[in-house]
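S1.2 Input.
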Amino acid sequence: MKLNEITDNAGASKSRRRVGRGIGSSKGKTGGRGVKGQKSRSGVAINGFEGGQMPIFRRLPKRGFSNAMFAADMKIVSVGTLQKAIDDKKIDGKATITAEMLVEAGILRRAGDGVRILSDGDLKAKLTCEVAGASKAAIEKIEKAGGTVKVFEKVVYTKKVYVPKDA
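S1.3 Output.
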């Protein structure tokens, strides 16, 4: 069997009806769209419209909020990923591990607002890490292997308010 010889079973797909080709075709004149009105025209999208009834997305209560504007864009690296990178000789286990080093080695695509280390996987190498964040379990694993973790101070975003000097 070859890829170019593969065909569908007979009757598996129905051929499309060509609409708007004469009154005798049973889909002529209005093309199955009925008569006049918004839905008979092209370019209509009435998704979520419920005929004047209050739409469901307005009837249901809203909960929570999104703090995406001020949220830090942390890139996540697991302890197991670091060990695999050391085994594959992508990074030097004796050097201090930073966000820039991980980007250079190709483990991360970009550094974002910093790197956070999580505890997935096992670690055998003695690491020295300078990162923006690390989970308690990840810190325990690194310290158990004889390494150290230095976590930077968290960046706090504040809203700048203009106050005139004469006020």
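S1.4 Remarks. The two ends are 85 Å apart (CA to CA).
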